[in-house]
Amino acid sequence: MLVTRDSRYDGTNFHNISRLNADGTKDAGFLPGTGADGEALVLALRADGDIFVGGSFTTVRGMVRPNVVRLHGDALPFLGSARSNGMLTLSWPISAGNFRLQEAANVLAPASWNPTAQAAVTNGSHVSVTVPTTGAMKFFRLQSQ
Predict the structure, then answer these.
(1) Residues 110-123: tens digit of each pLDDT
(2) Element (H, E) at 62
(3) How far apart are CA 88 and CA 134, in angstroms?
(4) Which helix or strand (DSSP H or E) is residue 18 part of?
(5) What's the pLDDT score for residue 75?
(6) Degrees (nearest 5) of the Cα angle 44, 42, 33?
(7) SS3 of 2, please?
C-alpha cells in the first residue's frame, strides 16, 4: 500500500491511495474507485492485512470517513447498485477477483448471511446479480471465495 501526497503515481491517477507490487510497480488489481477526497498522510498495517489510513480527507470511495478509514488489504471491490422496475441490480468489477454476493435479513446476525438465490451474470467488465425489490428488507455484501 502506498499513501501519496499526490493523486498520481507513475502516470496513473490513484486518488491519493495506491498499492504497489513487491518490485515497486503499481498493482493494476488495486481499484481505489474515487479514492480519498483529500491527502492520505499516514498508514498502519494490521496483522490481518487490514490497513488504517489517516489524513486530511472527509470521504473515501464516496463514503463519509473523516480523517481515518480502515481498508481491507485485499482491496475489496466497490458494490454498485441500480434500481429499476421493481428490481435491484448489484454489480462489481470482474477484475477484482473471485467474490460471491450474499444477502441477509439481519446484518447483526453473522450466521444469517447466505448466497443470493439469483445467479451472477458476467457482462463485459462487471459481474452483476439482479434481485426483486419486493418482500422483506435485505442487506447485501460481497464475500471472497
Answers:
(1) 778 899 999 999 98
(2) none
(3) 10
(4) strand 17-18
(5) 52
(6) 90
(7) strand
> Which grid cell sits at 137?
428488507
How confident is the model over 60-83, as a mean pLDDT?
A: 75
How many residues can be counted in the chain? 145
Residue 112: what residue type?
S
Compute φ and ψ for 122, nearest 5 degrees: -90, 125
Burial class (CB in 10 A: 0-12, 13-18, 19+), 90: buried
Global model pTM greater than 0.70: no
Sole residue written with cell 463485459: 124
The residue whose grid cell reads 488495486 is 30
For residue 43, the surrounding DSSP H or E stretch is strand 40-45
Q: In this structure, are residues 15 and 71 in contact, taking their beta carbons and an 8 Å threshold? A: no
| Predicted confidence (pLDDT) per residue in 24-55, tens digit | 677 766 666 677 888 877 777 776 667 778 88
Q: Which residue has the cell 496513473?
A: 12
Q: Show Cβ contacts of residue 17 under 8 Å, excluding neighbours closer than 6 positions.
A: 1, 2, 3, 4, 32, 35, 36, 40, 53, 60, 71
Amino acid letter at 137? M
pLDDT at 63: 75
